[in-house]
Write a structure and sequence with these properties.
- The chain has one domain.
- Helix content is 58%, strand content 18%.
- The longest helix has 39 residues.
- The strands form two sheets. It has a four-stranded antiparallel β-sheet with strand order 1-2-3-4.
- A hairpin with a 2-residue loop joins strand 6 and strand 7.
- Keywords: Membrane, Transmembrane, Transmembrane helix.
């Protein structure tokens, strides 16, 4: 009977944590999307390639990462509390450490919501300004940038290039293709080949590529 009550209590706690994570995540993602929509989707001559599958993948990854953050907080607080159970100021120490941890996690939390919003925004072809807009390609960050967490700054942002800056493309076997130019190379990733080819076809209607490479279907 006691075990059943403990299990029910654990379920309730997980539901509360889920609500505390999901609702703010959705709200912040919506606010960031609305901000980008007002910036990039107000012109008439705009084509947007929306990939819901990629949005679900990014959204799910963000929620999973935040749940892990909460679990680390929970387990860490329990272990620290056990180690300080004979200390007179244990409660103060635990609360202080938890507050510091939460403050440190606020920035990653916000960037994960930005990434979900950017994934939902998709790829935009803004013909009034002859500009391609797409989620930032984080693969350009070096190993040291990843170790130093500098990639977080680019998470949830977009990159913009003029059509004239894009000289060629490479279509890979998977679900992505690369654009090339003086800026180097950037990857545009999708959840399926149909969305990849839809975006590529839209680009080919607007850009006369000087060179292409097709490495697969």
């Amino acid at each position: 009977m006691a075990k059943k009550k403990n299990d029910e209590g654990a379920v309730i706690i997980f539901l509360i944590i889920g609500a505390l994570v999901f609702i703010p995540f959705m709200l912040l993602a919506f606010l960031h999307y609305r901000k980008m929509k007002s910036r990039y989707l107000t012109n008439r001559n705009v084509q947007r390639v929306v990939d819901i599958g990629r949005f679900y993948a990014v959204f799910g990854s963000g929620i999973a990462a935040i749940v892990v953050m909460f679990l680390v907080l929970w387990v860490g607080a329990a272990n620290i509390g056990h180690g300080l159970e004979n200390t007179s100021h244990a409660a103060v120490i635990i609360c202080t450490l938890m507050a510091l941890y939460v403050l440190l996690m606020l920035y990653p939390f916000k960037k994960l919501t930005d990434a979900a919003a950017t994934a939902y925004l998709g790829v935009i072809l803004e013909d009034d300004f002859n500009t391609l807009i797409f989620p930032a390609d984080l693969a350009n960050y070096s190993a040291s940038d990843v170790i130093k967490l500098r990639f977080l700054k680019g998470l949830g942002t977009v990159e913009r290039f003029q059509y004239s800056q894009i000289t060629s493309f490479t279509r890979e076997k998977g679900k992505l293709f690369y654009i090339h130019g003086d800026f180097g190379s950037r990857a545009l990733s999708f959840s399926n080949k149909q969305k990849r080819d839809e975006c590529l076809a839209a680009l080919q209607q607007r850009i006369k590529f000087r060179g292409t490479r097709d490495l697969g279907y």
